[in-house]
Amino acid sequence: MCGVPAPRLPPTADHTVDRATLQGRLERFRQRWEARDGLEKQQAQEFLRELLSCYGRSTQTHEVLFEYPLTVDGRQRWADLLLPEELLVEMKSARETDRLAEHYPQAEAYWRASGAGETRSPRFVVLCSFRLTTLSNRLDDGAHRDLVKLHDALDQAVLRAYGWPLRLAGRTDEAEDELLVRLHEANRTIADGARAGYEAFALTAPPEKESTELLF
Known about the structure:
This protein is of the alpha+beta class. It contains five helices and five strands, in the order ααβββαββαα. The chain has a five-stranded mixed β-sheet with strand order 1-2-3-4-5.
């Protein structure tokens, strides 16, 4: 239905949803919506509320803002959904699916306007036509470089504390895979009692690399 892997919402979701549960919820969500008209003005909020609920995210909170007013080029506009500093969603009707990319400049403008006050612009921007979704990670696109530098500095500090090579701070699949193996082995050492004063997590095999199957 929508052409991206299911995005991971930030860890402020109201409760954790395991992958199997998430897949089931998203499949039911897809089935409900694939036969519907997909009308922006009439159905966008219902669509988004149901989607957020799949991830365990309540919409009955001041942190979930529908029809959020923005000033773009001196004119009042409204973002379909804003989770401050986390996510901005702009919906389009299903009939716009083939032209969805043409609407990205609008979503980009809304993203910039959403950071005009005391909060940062969100990390993620979603443009969705009920049938197709595009997801943009603005940090990966070069936004908020000061925040990225802080994350990098924290990563390097943790690696130094473990005595591990700083190359593992690189944002590559290879570095991530090696980190998972090292962390698993460190946890096993703690669980075996070789490092007193530490409490191990529940010991499991290193997680398999997550697939990029389409979930909705």
